[in-house]
Amino acid sequence: QVQLVESGGGSVQAGGSLRLSCSVSEYTYNSYCMGWFRQAPGKEREWVAGIRKNSVTRYAESVEGRFTIAQDNAKTTLYLQMNSLKPEDTAMYYCAAGPCLAHWQLRPRDYNYWGQGTQVTVSS
User: Fold this and answer.
1) How far apart are the first and last CA of the chain?
2) Tens of pLDDT along 58-98?
């Protein structure tokens, strides 16, 4: 059974940093491609960052240069390091797992499994 558990959210002032963690089973990490999404109130869930099995990463334009997606060597934790946070980064953040496709998976429907989410609030 695939289980994803996020942690690390919180409240921070603009310009601050947070690191989100997503606990995954090694089986999950070896079998699926992973991504981070976020959803602000009244908005659609949007893709933030992804990592392929060869560790190649990709970011949404809105977070490029500020956020970093990474995995630990044991492949049991997925991270999202968020620096230079802005009020517009305020959202519920989710990690997700889905079957690896030939193309980058940027849509929520590309993923089968989701964590419960962790709230990030950035004040100005």
Assistant:
1) 40
2) 999 999 999 999 988 777 899 999 999 999 999 999 999 99
d(CA 3, CA 27): 10
Q: Quick check: 7 and 119 in contact, CB under 8 A? A: no
Helices (H), the chain: 26-31
Q: What is the largest distance, in Å, between two alpha-carbon atoms of the chain?
A: 40
Q: What whole-number distance in Å separates Cα of residue 79 and Cα of residue 56? A: 14
List the one residue out of 59, 7, 17 whose CA is nearest residue 35. Answer: 59
- Paired tokens of 110: 């590309």
Torsion of CA 59, 41, 120, 117, to 10 degrees: -80
